[in-house]
Amino acid sequence: MNFHLDRIMPLLTPSGVVLGLLLGSWVAWMKPSVTILFAVITFIGGLGINSNDFFKVVKKPKAILVFVIGANLVMPLLTYAVASVVFKDQQEIATGLILLMSIPTAITGYIWSGIYKGNGALSLTLILVSTLLAPILTPYTVSLLANTSVRIDTAGMMASLVLMVVIPSVAGILINNLTKGKVNDHITPCLKPFSKIGLFIIIIINTAQVSDRLLANASWAYLPIALTCAFLAVIGYPISHTLGRIAGLAEEESKSITFASSLRNISAALVLAIAYFPAETALPVIFGIVFQQSTCAVMAHVLYGRKKKYVTHQHSKGVNTMQPITSVHQSVARKEKVLQFGEGNFLRAFVDWMIDILNEKTDFNGNVVLVQPLDRGLRDMINAQNGLYTTVLRGVQNKKTVEEYRTINSVSRCLNPFMADDYQEYMKLASSEDLRFIVSNTTEAGISYHSGDTLADQPPLSFPAKVCAFLYKRYQAFEGALDKGLIVIPCELIDKNGDNLKNIVKQYATEWKLEEGFTTWLDEACDFCNSLVDRIVPGYPRAEAEAICTKLGYQDNLLDSAEIFHLWVIECHKNFHEDELPFNKAGLNVVWTDDMSFYRTRKVRILNGAHTMSVLAAYQAGHETVQDCIADKALLYPFMYKGIFEEIIPSMDGSKEELEAYAADVLERFENPYNPHQLLSISLNSVSKFKTRNLPSLLGYFTKQGKLPKRLVFSLSALISFYEGTDYEGSSLKGTRASETYLIQDSPEILAAFAALYAEKGNPKAKSQRLAKAVLSNTAWWSQDLTKVEGLEKAVAANLEAIWTVGMKQAVASLV
């Protein structure tokens, strides 16, 4: 219902004006009920606001200043200029127009701001500021521009403000705080339609107040007045909107300023016009009452309604007109406690999912700010949904199908630090008293040193350099205070990810010649934890997205599917941080430990290793998903099974029985029919993944068994074959499978090296020998020369020749 009311507001509002004019005295007697209706509407709005929102408004007074300039300087001066030209011989009409644009902002600005997802806390603040300034600014503006004087009933205006805005909105905010946002999640969406209906009734009643006065004396002489009032009512929106954009305000702030600057307390203006001026002066005010809400409905739709077009996911086809997730769920403002580098599927279905549960089941009360590690990402899509999205957890437990849908409300916003405004917002977080944690997933290639990054870069390219610059900014902001350090928990699948990140951060600190006090602060105030994550996250369920959204009742372009199983092992150097991140209290499978080596080796080499070992060969053999591999009992499943049980597990230390039991669970998880994990999505950065996930098993097996593991060696050969390409599409190489192309995604250096290698032609035998030698001897990729491993270069070359002569399927068949 709320969705449909949003769509018809541009028609509903002028209809209310027409009804008010026609009904006149029949409804004019209901004027006292307007106060009650306003109170109810502001109470509903208050349920969606957190007290922290007001602190943010106070911390950023620029928005208030822009409003004061637009509403109290730009618009009155524009009105004076128009009135001086159009009504230069009709001083009373000109005075009415100036009075109309000098009166304080209307409470309805808060209502419209809520409808179009403005900043509710800012809207309330602007109403209060405008009303407090009115006793000074309104008389002065009228005196200066109209050469006459008025007196404002400050006490009466403030009393109305307290009854209609302050008391109900504060009550709503308190309830939202006390319930930790639960009321906003579950009750507010049901109440939102009453706000629109209430506004419709208010428009009818207010318009009815001037019906007799307007219709009884209707004349064509009023047409210039009506047209001028309509013009001023319309022009205020683009002017205010433009001022907000020029000032660099966030979109929700610009919306609040636009409505507050364009909507005026015309009832107060009518009282002043009647009390202090000739009857003609009231005419522009009367037309203002007629046009104000109608033009607001139309201009709001023009400026912001089109931006609410219901887009579909980047992979989906066609046009979906289903209501967006933001029409059903409202984001909850909380303290921004977590800075997250990475906005992709995994972190949103793992870390942000956990934070959402923490907010529900504990007193954590914190949100996550996402940061794109790269220039291209999901920033716009995430912010368009106000950080809201749905996780779809599905699997089989105890032979029963389990399906869980959860609306994630723990993400406050997503920043792209490669955009100037977002970079400033990102660096402001370094000075935040609320910020306590950094988490990341920039893939295995992310935690690496990048020569050439400097402190002056905005931002530096590499992830560790970004962290160094950010932490140094925090160190400066708090003058090295030891209680302002951050807990850093990387999720990248490399051994000792936290230790590695810290070492590279220190390397940049030394290279940038930062003071020793900063390095000491990193050691004493911050805790770089090592961590291991375990959950299979296929991500956006492309084939099922439309059906899932239909079931949910809203369009979600960020649907994130995952298995039900989850495990996060966090190895801390100082203290376990469970008091600040009470995951176990919330029933989450999180292990705090001082030694995670067993968990990490088991997961990376078996679960992730099975993926990396098989997906590139499987894709070239014609498969699309991990589930396809499991279903291929004749070829890919035995290849994967034997690779795990006959090569990976024998290369590892530890209990064989325990490792095999874990591997059996992994294969069952791979078989989950609800999570079709796309092979191409796993192929991202396969070179660094092979080094981390498979190379230790390959070398470990060779050391223990004295021979090469033929399936792991073949998987390295399949990697080289998969990376065959010379042409680019964007930043990716284009590979070819049969008659179709696919994108090869890795670091620019790796892609350039493969493109150069494949640019040189040759017969399969010569080509395979050349590729095997060049790739295996690249010490930058493997941290060693793999041609020194006895027999490896020859075996890889033989595999490549087989792949290029008999095809991938037949080549794999020889290994099962």
From TrEMBL:
GO terms for molecular function: mannitol-1-phosphate 5-dehydrogenase activity; tagaturonate reductase activity. GO terms for cellular component: cytosol; membrane. The chain crosses the membrane at residues 12-29, 35-52, 64-87, 93-112, 124-146, 158-178, 190-208, 220-240. It is a multi-pass membrane protein. The keyword Amino-acid biosynthesis does not apply. Its EC number is 1.1.1.58. Keywords: Membrane, NAD, Oxidoreductase, Transmembrane, Transmembrane helix. GO terms for biological process: D-galacturonate catabolic process; mannitol catabolic process. It is found in: Membrane. InterPro entries: 6-PGluconate_DH-like_C_sf (IPR008927), 6PGD_dom2 (IPR013328), BilAc:Na_symport/Acr3 (IPR002657), Mannitol_DH (IPR000669), Mannitol_DH_C (IPR013118), Mannitol_DH_N (IPR013131), Na+/solute_symporter_sf (IPR038770), NAD(P)-bd_dom_sf (IPR036291). Residues 596-804 form the Mannitol dehydrogenase C-terminal domain. Residues 337-579 form the Mannitol dehydrogenase N-terminal domain. NCBIfam families: PRK03643.1 (NF002969). This is Tagaturonate reductase. It comes from Sphaerochaeta globosa (strain ATCC BAA-1886 / DSM 22777 / Buddy) (Spirochaeta sp. (strain Buddy)).
